[in-house]
Amino acid sequence: MSDTSKPEAAQHKQGLRAAIVPVTPFQQNCTLLWDPATMTGAVVDPGGDLEYIERAIAEVGMKPEKIVLTHGHIDHAGGAAELKERLGVPIEGPHEAERPLLEGLEEQGRAYGMQARAVTPNRWLSEGDTVAVAGHVFEVLHCPGHSPGSVVLVNRPQRFVLMGDVLFQGSIGRTDLPFGNHEALLKAIRTKVLPLGDEFAFICGHGPTSTIGHERQTNPFLVGDAGSSYA
Ligand SMILES: [Zn+2]
Ligand SMILES: [Zn+2]
Q1: Whether the Cβ atoms of residue 226 and residue 194 lie closer than 8 Å to each other
Q2: Dihedral class, residue 59 (left if φ above 0, else alpha if ψ from -120 to 50, else beta)
């Protein structure tokens, strides 16, 4: 059990590790999550560029057990059907309200000049469900607004969040696409995401990682009215 000669390795054994693979022309943060003790894990939001994702999987040396989708936009879900077949693993998420977007992935692809296939997850996720990644539990928050079936996944022991396109460093998800709803998005952020606590760190769909606290204090979409939003 003792592993004092390798403090870093011992430290990593406490939890999941993550690697980000930017994919598609949208530079979407496809995320590999794995437990270094078992080297099993998940691929989150494989939007495309599967050769990059598969190369990263091989470099890390992990064994994906599932694909997790935060929502149905092409940059997040466009490669899911193909990767599911290549890896032979199930897809979990997003919320079933995302069905029209997932069934319309080919049309989304035509609109953006990208290859994509429609996909149906093996498991839809609802508020309060849990998703296991290498035995680590993530709680599901249904956070519509950027898209109707967007989910945010929360691992409380490690204070870590998979944010999808709900909240970014310095911004929030766009709501001008079909099914977008700005008020719903702000409500989900205020009532579900911010109350998680300032110390929670997140990986989001685009751009750098951040923390809830940093966004609460500096995000132009959230500062100024946050005090009244917690009631
Ligand atoms: Zn999106
Ligand atoms: Zn995106």
Answers
A1: yes
A2: alpha
Q: How far is the CA of 53 from the centre of ligand 1 (A)?
A: 19
CA distances from 21 to 26, 31, 45, 205, 214 (A): 12, 6, 10, 11, 23
How many CA atoms lie less than 13 Å away from 85 in the CB half-sphere? Answer: 8
Ligand (nearest to CA of 26): 2
Give per-residue pLDDT as tens, 23-74: 999 999 999 999 999 999 999 999 999 999 999 999 999 999 999 999 999 9
Tokens for 102?
């997932």
Distance 89 CA to ligand 1 centre (A): 23
Are 199 and 217 in contact by the 8 Å Cβ rule? The answer is no
- How far, in Å, is the centroid of ligand 2 from the Cα of 112? 13
What pLDDT is stored for residue 1 in this prediction? 45
Residue at 186: amino acid letter: L
pLDDT band, residue 230 (cuts 50/70/90) = very low
Q: Over the range 190-228, which residues count as b (16 or more CB within 10 Å of their CB) and which as e?
A: bebbbebeeebebbbbbeebbbbeebbeebebbeeeeee
- Specify the pLDDT at position 14: 64
- Measure 48 CA to ligand 1 centroid, in angstroms: 14
